[in-house]
Design goal:
Blueprint (H helix, E strand, L loop, with lengths): L5 H22 L4 H21 L13 H24 L11 H7 L9
Length: about 120
């Protein structure tokens, strides 16, 4: 079983303390059974929070893992190659310099620009 990280300790402990204080103030319990129930609930919630934190280097840690980085780079390469193929087929002609600016702008005002 892997060791817990410092972040898991910190978040779990903070959750236990905050939950215990909140539940004791909310329910205003003074009996031993009520305090034990509040403590058990706070410990369970703290454990749940600590276990749900992603581990560094794990694929589910939001892109920090090696497998996720490899998948993202290969997907970017495929997209780049696909866009290169589109760019080679579609060429946008250069603007003509002999036209007057006002006539060119009014004639082509409704057209969609293909330049990127």
């Amino acid at each position: 079983m892997p060791r817990p990280t410092a972040a898991q300790f910190a978040y779990g402990s903070a959750t236990v303390v905050a939950t215990t204080l909140a539940l004791l103030l909310l329910f205003r319990t003074e009996s031993g059974v009520g305090v034990a129930a509040v403590g058990a609930t706070a410990l369970a919630l703290g454990l749940l929070v600590a276990l749900r934190l992603p581990r560094p280097g794990h694929p589910t840690a939001g892109g920090t893992g090696r497998a996720t980085t490899d998948r993202a780079s290969s997907a970017a390469a495929r997209t780049h190659h696909a866009l290169e193929g589109i760019g080679a087929r579609e060429r946008v002609p250069a603007a003509r310099s002999s036209e007057r600016p006002s006539a060119r702008s009014s004639a082509r005002a409704d057209e969609h620009s293909l330049r990127r």
